Write a sequence for this structure.
């Protein structure tokens, strides 16, 4: 399987409109190798990480400045923003610890203070988005099924009652749907797990559109089974198998797109570690 898909699987085991394409790419002028951008709900900042998800960096999108928050291995995967726009959550492990021993921290952008969150399991990220979060979804590392947990009642239930090894669950904005990955395929399940899941595409989904009608993601390619030779961005219809390729380049290796404002996308070029913005066009 492809490099990024394998790496994300290892991390789990160790631990808007009808747009059809993107317009011209605009580089965010910051120095360094960065990837996996996740934009804050108000579009003012983005979280970044380095190669192999090492470290966390805070990008100010207005000033084009980057601040290092963490330098730990694997901390740059699964981070998420609080809905208050000023706090984000991430996980860290010690140098001699396993990913399964990771702890969750909250970082306040305004005060520049971090706080250990003992009550939050690291597997709850990225679905945990603050104290107002009613339900989280996560991979059960023993069964490799996607489960949900009501944080108020402590009730848990299995979402993916199917064969497979599931990972990378993404809860929709309205809290009713869950995008999951099984191998290289992307499925959308009801949170209650009752209705039949819908296969919406192949690749890695990275986020829901504001109206929950689409998933944003990417599909990388490999000629030798190890090194990535190309990658393109996709929009996935969340109700049917209608994947739409929204980039088609040979110069860039587009990965880890994040919705940015109303019709923009922030993404990384895996070849250079540069971050770009682009606008979704009909």
């Amino acid at each position: 399987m492809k490099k990024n898909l394998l790496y994300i699987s290892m991390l789990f085991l160790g631990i808007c409109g009808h747009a059809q394409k993107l317009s011209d790419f605009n580089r965010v002028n910051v120095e360094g190798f960065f990837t996996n951008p996740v934009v804050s709900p108000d579009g003012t900042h983005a979280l970044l990480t380095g190669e192999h998800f090492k470290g966390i960096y805070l990008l100010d999108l207005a000033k084009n400045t980057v601040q290092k928050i963490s330098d730990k291995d694997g901390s740059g995967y699964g981070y998420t923003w609080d809905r208050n726009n000023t706090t984000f959550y991430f996980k860290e492990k010690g140098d001699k610890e396993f990913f399964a021993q990771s702890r969750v921290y909250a970082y306040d952008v305004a005060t520049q203070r971090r706080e250990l969150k003992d009550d939050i399991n690291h597997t709850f990220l990225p679905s945990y988005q603050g104290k107002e979060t009613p339900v989280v979804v996560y991979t059960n590392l023993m069964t490799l099924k996607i489960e949900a947990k009501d944080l108020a009642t402590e009730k848990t239930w299995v979402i993916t009652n199917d064969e497979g090894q599931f990972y990378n669950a993404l809860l929709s904005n309205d809290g009713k749907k869950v995008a999951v990955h099984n191998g290289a395929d992307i499925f959308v399940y009801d949170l209650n797990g009752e209705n039949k899941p819908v296969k919406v595409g192949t690749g890695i989904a990275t986020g829901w559109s504001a109206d929950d009608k689409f998933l944003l993601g990417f599909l990388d390619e490999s000629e030798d089974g190890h090194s990535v030779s190309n990658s393109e961005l996709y929009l996935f219809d969340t109700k049917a198998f209608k994947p739409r390729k929204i980039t088609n380049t040979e110069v860039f290796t587009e990965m880890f797109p994040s919705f940015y404002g109303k019709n923009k996308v922030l993404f990384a070029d895996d070849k250079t570690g540069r971050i770009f913005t682009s606008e979704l066009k009909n």
Summary: Residues 3-14 form the longest helix (12 residues). Residues 26-279 form a domain with the Neuraminidase fold (CATH 2.120.10.30).
